[in-house]
């Protein structure tokens, strides 16, 4: 393999005019009118680890009897570039799913970034986030831990293990090392308490399960559970399965996304 010679100034060599695909620029690429339903919340998303955090959260709230958490959910096909349409970018300038609109407020409230959405919903309805300062802080510690650590699992380990056009040992070793360190951290934490932040189920569990629980259960990248030897993390495995059995989690995974044209 030829060593990469780093230029003085990086140039993008794959320039194209397609709606989708990565570019080193932000902003909308085409005019778009997103559908808007009658439910209090309008969710524009996809069933990725970050996307399912929000459907799980909303279903958990509905399971608690909060009918005001009703929502319409529309499929944003990131493969064809729906996230770069003008209406979506108006909600989330970063062009990433999920994006949520609370139209029960006037004017409406636009929320993006999955962690921000979880926190918004928890605070709005007073659920799944402890009120005492110690419990609240611990839950937020772990919520933000996931937000900061997740890219090592997705964009790092997941990309080079499952999606990169060629297998390269150095990045796979590097990101596997960090992913296993994170799994070990979670396993040690869950050896001491039933949920991530303590004795109760919180938004920290929702955020972390959507990535690490599904990874442990073999539902993220084919072959990765064996490769990472996830069975060695027995406390993490028990927690992952227990969370997977929650009705709100199951409904959040099974939700039917409406097409943008519907």
From TrEMBL:
<dbReference type="InterPro" id="IPR040079">
    <property type="entry name" value="Glutathione_S-Trfase"/>
</dbReference>
<dbReference type="InterPro" id="IPR036282">
    <property type="entry name" value="Glutathione-S-Trfase_C_sf"/>
</dbReference>
<protein>
    <submittedName>
        <fullName>Glutathione-dependent disulfide-bond oxidoreductase</fullName>
    </submittedName>
</protein>
<feature type="domain" description="GST N-terminal">
    <location>
        <begin position="42"/>
        <end position="129"/>
    </location>
</feature>
<dbReference type="InterPro" id="IPR010987">
    <property type="entry name" value="Glutathione-S-Trfase_C-like"/>
</dbReference>
<dbReference type="Pfam" id="PF02798">
    <property type="entry name" value="GST_N"/>
</dbReference>
<dbReference type="InterPro" id="IPR004045">
    <property type="entry name" value="Glutathione_S-Trfase_N"/>
</dbReference>
<dbReference type="Pfam" id="PF13410">
    <property type="entry name" value="GST_C_2"/>
</dbReference>
<dbReference type="InterPro" id="IPR036249">
    <property type="entry name" value="Thioredoxin-like_sf"/>
</dbReference>
<feature type="domain" description="GST C-terminal">
    <location>
        <begin position="132"/>
        <end position="262"/>
    </location>
</feature>
């Amino acid at each position: 393999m030829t060593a990469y010679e780093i230029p003085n100034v990086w140039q993008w060599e794959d320039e194209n005019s397609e709606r989708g695909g990565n570019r080193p620029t932000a902003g909308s690429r085409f005019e778009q009118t997103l559908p808007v339903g009658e439910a209090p919340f309008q969710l524009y998303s996809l069933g990725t680890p970050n996307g399912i955090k929000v459907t799980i959260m909303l279903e958990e709230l509905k399971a608690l009897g909060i009918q005001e958490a009703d929502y319409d959910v529309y499929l944003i096909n990131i493969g064809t570039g729906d996230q770069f349409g003008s209406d979506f970018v108006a909600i989330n300038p970063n062009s990433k799913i999920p994006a949520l609109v609370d139209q029960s407020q006037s004017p409406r409230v636009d929320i993006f970034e999955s962690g921000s959405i979880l926190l918004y919903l928890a605070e709005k309805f007073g659920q799944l986030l402890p009120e005492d300062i110690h419990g609240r802080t611990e839950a937020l510690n772990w919520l933000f831990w996931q937000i900061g650590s997740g890219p090592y699992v997705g964009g790092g380990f997941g990309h080079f293990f499952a999606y990169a056009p060629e297998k390269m040992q150095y990045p796979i070793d590097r990101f596997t090392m960090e992913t296993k360190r994170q799994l070990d951290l979670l396993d040690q934490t869950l050896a001491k308490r039933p949920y991530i932040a303590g004795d109760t189920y919180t938004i920290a569990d929702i955020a972390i399960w959507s990535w690490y629980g599904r990874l442990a259960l073999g539902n993220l990248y084919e072959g990765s559970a064996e490769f990472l030897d996830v069975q060695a993390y027995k406390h993490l495995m028990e927690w992952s399965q227990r969370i997977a059995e929650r009705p709100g989690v199951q409904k959040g995974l099974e939700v039917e996304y409406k097409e943008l044209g519907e």
